[in-house]
Amino acid sequence: MDKKMISDHIENWQCCDIAQLVNHFHFMEKDKSGDLQQMRLGALVLEGEALSLLKSDSLKSLTLHMALTKKEAVNGEATFAPILEVCKEGGLEGSATFKPYSSDAPYSGLVPGVFKEAVNRNWLLIDSTLVDDLFLAYKPTEKNQIPQLQRLLRYHISKKTNTLLFDVLTMKGVQDNLKAIDLYMGADMNKLDDKGAFTFTPVIVLRTKKLDDETLLAIAKKGLRSFGGLTDDDDDEVLFEYLKPCPSTCN
User: Fold this and answer.
1) How confident is the model at residue 5 (pLDDT cuts 50, 70, 90)?
2) How many beta carbons lie within 10 A of that of residue 184, not counting itself?
3) Dist. CA 160–CA 169, nearest whole Å
4) What distance separates the 2 farthest-apart alpha carbons in the chain?
5) % the chain with pLDDT above 90
6) How far apart are CA 232 and CA 23, in angstroms?
7) What distance in Å separates the CA atoms of residue 210 and residue 113, rounded to the nearest whole number?
8) Cα 24-71-158 angle, rounded to 5 deg
9) What are the pLDDT digits (tens) for 117-170?
10) Which residues of 134-157 are buried (b: 16+ CB within 10 A; e: fewer)?
11) How far is CA 195 from the centre of its chain?
12) Handedness of CA 217, 170, 53, 135 (dihedral sign)
């Protein structure tokens, strides 16, 4: 992606009428009977050549920007397409866009049921009239000031804010076997009535080829949840469930 396209897609998100935001997460798809039905985007993926941006031991920071490919929602097309910006010690390395999974994509059976029944399921089932609210939170204010709503803009991921993610991403065993990064859409319903926090709760999954025992042990020692496939042909996965949003943690 060129810089202007990246800038345009990020600006599309920032300028979109908040009441219309929900339309960017839905698309039309034929059901088994051949009839068109509206579906909600549940997960996105980053794979292929885009992963080469991450294969380095000099990663400095990652920024997950909320972005839309179109200013106006397109009937039948999900236009939500977050952008991952990669910075290394020498400066900006590049950016790549997450692509949507179709509704019948093979969601991994390795993602634990507790998660599926929680944030991802909440996202898929929440009433369309509430989707916009997931991306809004009140700006902290001084006493007696009128609170102002802010829109979620991005997640900044660095060695300081997400030490474990960086530790795992820079493991040679992970970099050599990284197949994809999955981004699951989620909603933490415990935050829905707490207007001081964003309810939208994405989960990043590093999906790899079968990892060797040494790498799996190193991941386990960091206290992370790693899920290995049942056969050598199955993927391994590592989950990262806690990303810090901007605002309010923009620095």
Assistant:
1) very high
2) 23
3) 14
4) 60
5) 34
6) 40
7) 21
8) 75
9) 688 889 999 999 999 999 999 887 777 777 788 999 999 888 887 777 888 888
10) bbbbeeeeeeeeeeeebbbbbbbb
11) 21
12) positive
Kindly report the pTM of this predicted structure: 0.87
DSSP states of 16-35 as a string? S-GGGGGGGGEEEEE-TTS-
- Domain boundaries, given as residue ranges, for the chain: 3-28+39-246
The residues, ordered by sequence, that sit 6+ positions from 214 with a Cβ below 8 Å of its Cβ are 173
Residues listed for the chain: 251
User: φ, ψ for residue 61 (rounded to 5)?
Assistant: -160, 155
The residue among 137, 133, 227 whose CA lies nearest residue 219 is 227
Q: Got the DSSP string for 83-149?
A: EEEEEETTEEEEEEE-EEPPTTS---TTS-HHHIIIIIHHHHHS-HHHHGGGGEEEEP--TTSPPEE
